[in-house]
Design a protein that fits this description.
about 550 residues, alpha/beta, FAD/NAD(P)-binding domain, 4 domains, 22 strands, about 20% strand, globular
């Protein structure tokens, strides 16, 4: 018969059997502790990326048909965004920036899986789930039908609020419609996701300018709250002589004209000034209009704010990028701009943006000829009736709930600060939460979950098999230039989407690998009878050996 011999060592016990073996134990016990993965942390809208990917990844193991898994994965994303197909095409995917998977081969291609499930949903006609079928009495106004305004309208419609969107342009979509070329975002995809919002009961009034076609005073009388999302459609000027010539455009004006269906004659040689997405888009559109295209940027390629893939795509299409150069003077002949003098630059100390400041190299100038000049240096909102919300040199100021200084007036998107599409979507969602909280009194959540973060050093990377990142098919460069609407990058096939989802390591959350159960020799871990349900601990059997925590690949188990 075994007897227990107690050791005096603090916090430890020794179990000795008649066979002479002993096992040291600890007072610590295992505990499930969910952690925030980098993808969820770095997504500005904090989409439930891990949950979406694992829904697809575990489908086969859980004997779930893939169509069901794709629909459930889509519904997970539709909880936080109405635009998975759109963002799957245009978002620069900050969620992938610090993906722990890059410590093995490359980050999970979250963006492309999002696009796949978004397109799957459109093809199958899948509708978002409302949070209630009741229709509330309080009406809400949204000024601006871009991604921020439509996100707010969508989230409020899910809660049963009657929402009216006032859109000044002939079509909804904002910069998604008028600022992004068709080869990146086809109009039919944008239309389909906007129509899905309208089908939820959102009334979108087009060609209706607040301040001109309807007054803000009238809106305040009829609507309980208002969300303002004007966007930033006004391109900034270069402030140099000659830029008022008819063949000199701002980047936003040029793209707006082309996307709006206007035929723009750019001639055979276009120069674009700037290094952001608008500049790269304008240069690539000019190539599709038949012109040679040069981008002039005052810093190096490293400092270019444009998406890396778009810069690469532009170079593949023959766009020349002239770096460390800035415009000085525009030459005109008979009222038209024909060329300009440019200044060579070098990089000095960092400025307020953190990028190194470009400094002129004295005496080093050169001339450039062109038939069209496009200045895509930045953009700003046209505030109109909302200029009273501007504070000092800032644009519209809001608190953490997107509330402005005026009662029942909220704002978000580019009229707060220039950002990504997903930033605007997040602003709209937070404003919808705040409006609902204000009206209902229900406490709402703002910001990401307040849980610890997980990094590679807390993972068992060797547990996961090597698996190459799937790259979607792309159209050849010479084929791209034949048609403005030709979409360059293909949507994943089902097999590609499943493969990529299975690369997710479920950082910080159980993915049913069974290691804890396998390594426990004391039957202290109980395996669930139903797939997907959590493992549980029978702590009365646990001796604190830590094997479950030490062999948890995703860092979900801790000893406490």
């Amino acid at each position: 018969m075994a007897k227990v011999v107690k050791k005096k060592k603090k916090g430890l016990k020794s179990l000795r059997s008649s066979g002479g073996s002993s096992v040291e134990t600890s007072p610590l016990r295992p505990k499930h502790v969910e952690k925030q993965p980098p993808c969820g942390e770095f997504c500005p809208n904090h989409n439930q990326i891990r949950k979406m990917l694992m829904k697809i990844s575990k489908a086969e193991a859980y004997e779930m048909p893939y169509e069901q898994a794709f629909e459930e994965a889509l519904q997970i994303f539709l909880e936080t965004t109405p635009f998975p197909s759109v963002c799957g095409r245009v978002c620069p995917h900050p969620c992938e920036t610090d993906c722990n998977r890059k410590e093995k081969e490359a980050p999970v291609s979250i963006n492309k899986v999002e696009r796949f499930i978004g397109d799957f949903g459109l093809e199958k006609g899948i509708k978002p789930k409302k949070l209630t079928e009741d229709v509330r009495a309080e009406k809400i106004a949204v000024v601006g039908g871009g991604p921020g305004g439509l996100s707010c309208a969508y989230q409020l419609a899910r809660r049963g609020y009657p929402v009216t969107v006032f859109e000044a342009f002939p079509k909804a979509g904002g910069m998604l419609r008028y600022g992004i070329p068709d080869y990146r975002l086809p109009q039919n995809i944008l239309d389909a996701e906007i129509n899905r919002i309208a089908e939820m009961g959102v009334d979108i009034k087009l060609s209706t300018s607040v301040g001109n076609d309807i007054s803000m005073d009238d809106i305040k009388k009829e609507y309980k709250a208002t969300f303002v999302a004007l966007g930033a459609h006004k391109g900034l000027k270069l402030r140099i002589e000659g830029e008022d010539a008819p063949n000199v455009f701002t980047g936003t004006d040029f793209l707006h004209r082309v996307n709006g269906g206007e035929k723009v004659d750019v001639g055979d040689k276009v120069v674009v000034i700037g290094g952001g997405d608008t500049a790269i888009d304008a240069a690539r559109v000019a190539r599709r209009l038949g012109a040679e295209s040069t981008v002039l940027y005052r810093r190096t390629k490293t400092e270019m704010p444009a998406i890396d893939e778009e810069i690469t795509g532009a170079e593949e299409e023959g766009v020349k990028i002239d770096l460390l150069a800035a415009p000085l003077e525009i030459f005109t002949t008979d009222g038209k701009a024909t060329g300009m003098k440019c200044q060579r630059m070098e990089l000095g100390e960092p400025d307020s943006s953190g990028r190194r400041r470009p400094v002129p190299i004295e005496g080093d100038t050169f001339d450039l000829e062109f038939t069209t000049l496009i200045a895509a240096i930045s953009q700003a909102p046209e505030f109109g009736t909302f200029d009273s919300l501007i504070e000092g040199r800032n644009w519209i100021q809001v608190d953490e709930k997107q509330k402005t200084k005026e009662d029942a007036l909220f704002s978000g998107g580019d009229n707060v600060n220039l950002g990504l599409v997903i930033d605007a979507i997040h602003h709209g969602r937070m404003a919808a939460n705040a409006i609902h909280e204000m009206i209902s009194g229900e406490a709402m959540s703002f910001g990401p979950p307040d849980i610890g973060k997980i990094r590679p050093d807390k993972l068992m990377l060797h547990h996961y098999e090597e698996s190459a990142r799937q790259e979607p098919k792309e159209m050849a460069a010479d084929e791209r230039l034949k048609e403005m609407q030709a979409e360059i990058v293909s949507t994943y096939t089902q097999d590609e989407a499943v493969h990529e989802a299975k690369r997710c390591m479920s950082c910080g959350m159980c993915f049913d690998c069974g290691n804890c159960w396998s390594f426990c020799q004391d039957n202290a871990v109980k395996k669930p009878l139903v797939n997907g349900e959590p493992y549980t601990f029978k702590l009365e059997y646990c001796n604190g050996c830590k094997k479950c925590a030490e062999n948890c690949p995703c860092g979900y188990i801790e000893m406490h």
